[in-house]
Amino acid sequence: MLLQRCPVLAARPSRRAAVCVQAKVSRSEGEPRVIRGKCFVTRDNIDTDQIIPAEYLTLVPSKPEEYEKLGSYALIGLPDDLYPERYVKEGEMKTEYPVIIGGQNFGCGSSREHAPVSLGAAGAKVCVAESYARIFFRNCIATGELYPCETGVRLCDVLKTGTEVTVDMDKNVLTDHSTGKTYPLQEIGEAGPVIDAGGIFEYARRQGMIKVA
Amino acid sequence: MALHATMNAPCGAGRVARRSVKVSAVAATPTPARTPAATGSVKRAMTMTEKILANHSDNASTKPGDNIWTRVDKLMTHDVCGPGTFGIFQKEFGPNAKVWDNERVVIIPDHYIFTSDARANRNVDILRDMATKYNIKYFYDIKDRSNFKANPDYKGVCHVALAQEGHCKPGEVLFGTDSHTCNAGAFGQFATGVGNTDAGFILGTGKLLIKVPPTMRFVMDGEMPEYLLAKDLILQIIGEISVAGATYKAMEFAGSAIEGMNMDERMTICNMVVEAGGKNGVIAPDQTTFDYVRARTDEAFEPVYSDGSAQYVADYKWDVSKLEPLVAAPHSPDNRKTARECSDVKIDRVYIGSCTGGKTEDFVSAAKLFYRAKRQVKVPTYLVPATQKVWADVYTMPVPGCDGKTAAEIFEEAGCVTPAAPSCAACLGGPRDTFARMNEPEVCVSTTNRNFPGRMGHKEGQIYLASPYTAAASALKGFVCDPREYM
Description:
The structure holds two protein chains of two kinds.
Chain A: H1 2-5, H2 7-10, E1 34-41, H3 48-51, H4 64-72, E2 99-101, H5 114-122, E3 126-129, H6 134-143, E4 147-150, H7 155-158, E5 164-168, E6 173-176, E7 182-184, H8 191-197, H9 200-206
Parallel strand pairs in A: 1-2, 2-3, 3-4
Antiparallel strand pairs in A: 1-5, 5-6, 6-7
Helix pairs in contact in A: 4-5, 6-8, 8-9
Chain B: E1 2-3, E2 23-24, H1 48-55, E3 67-71, E4 74-77, H2 82-93, E5 105-107, H3 118-133, E6 138-139, H4 158-164, E7 173-176, E8 190-193, H5 196-205, E9 207-211, E10 215-221, H6 230-241, E11 250-254, H7 256-259, H8 263-271, E12 280-283, H9 287-294, E13 314-319, E14 326-328, E15 336-338, E16 349-353, H10 354-357, H11 360-373, E17 381-384, H12 388-396, H13 407-414, E18 443-446, E19 462-466, H14 468-477
Parallel strand pairs in B: 4-5, 4-7, 5-6, 7-8, 10-11, 10-13, 11-12, 16-17, 16-18, 18-19
Antiparallel strand pairs in B: 1-2, 3-9, 14-15, 14-19
Helix pairs in contact in B: 2-5, 6-8, 11-13, 11-14
Family (chain A): Belongs to the LeuD family. LeuD type 2 subfamily.
Protein name (chain A): 3-isopropylmalate dehydratase
Domain Aconitase A/isopropylmalate dehydratase small subunit swivel (chain A): 97-145
């Protein structure tokens, strides 16, 4: 199953340099900020311990192999009785759900950057939630791992895990392809270009704000 | 400017004589576009948080919502986030870059220390390499994991160590790669948690771009009843406003009950600001603060206070004499209940430790209750002093009003598990072999800060957050228990 996703990964045991880091959103300039795919629905107050339990924090996100491993554990802390579907299937490294739906206060708890990093490493591209905890929101932008989109609609009550959706951050609309219904999104604003670039440092470099020593 | 000749000289012929005019005009040096001056500006009434940020950002004043670049007095990191932070610093600023100030970075290994997990151990080694490479003045190293006392530099839990080592000072700005960095707000400073990327940025520049938060004020007045502790007050507040009630806001604590608290108790309150979503917490510095700080550092500091007419976005007031011992029931810090109404909840274990509830005052409180009760605990009671100093206090300091006995003696007589090596231990689960980690689905009363599913290890573990008094009483009863039963 692993081999079909990223052929380079199959050669990983012998070639460390060939780690397939499908990280960061990295959108090219001019490309529409539109993401289509299956959504994974969560509820209110998804805290960082549920996103990435503390026992996995020994993995250092700036090391490529450990970055990949973090992705495989994304959202593994969700209680099994409430979430029978795992975000990343057992034995897999990547998720089938590029879109995460949340309720209120998504990402509350710890300041650990491992939280947005594990989601991005797993293949999440955008989260659409009613509201975010501030450190998690800030970390999403600083790392460029995924877009933290906001909406006034309680999508977590409306959508189901596995539904195909399109998140259009240019037109500020989410489309549910199972029903054709659309829902308004708040503007991603200044955070957009920073995440497009792949995070605050890359953005600052492109803007000429900093030079490498 | 010199005009060598006039342009029009009178001439008999009626013609205007034009002599060659040598004009050597010296252009005025270009002046940059004028920036607004502030000499006549009337200073805005500001809250403590707004003032601290104004002082650190070359602004005469700030208001909530302003995006400002703030100078950083101290940056703290630990073994879980330090390697990643330095990794980002090296990648973004280059392998030859130096940190902005090697005396303003404090590296405190504390999270996953006493474990055989190879990666966890490696992370402490990485911190050592970074401390050496960048000549970091404050690195509280540990090498001998089998005996914490054999490591003279090792401290333990970062937030308590920061305070004990004199790194927390009124009026300063502190960032840490840990959400409970807000703990230091008890000293009247701006302190908050950030991720690795922001911390990596600070390492290189000594600054950070942040938004000035509006302030919510919480006035706790009246005399604290003997059965109430600071933990009960903060659980009261979080239960009131919810886990997102203070998102993006500063929480300012005032009132006679706060003023009567020592620094340990004030830290307990500010520590859990993040559990309400708060950005930072502050308590006005006073003689209690100055005495504590002066005993630990000679460095200068300038205390800052909220103006009388400063504006707050919310004002709460409580008469603490009317409050009761509380718990936060599973699975949220805002799931507020009185300890009394949970008296039918049978428990499997008690945990006293962490930056929130593992300080000297926390152990003194628990010991006092055990001593008064003169009984044995009915469930395994795990004790983890936050730092080496707290551990020493537990073993050497006579607990007031307990016949000269130390807390350690009282704990032993009550049948508690021997106090463990100082670290974060099971507050956040950690590697499988972590002391007191919940590896089975059990019910635990804990003096820690979060009780979301899986927080202490097992996803189905049930955690009741409580004060040291309530934790001790619950240990004696074998059920969640109001401490008044033993007082």
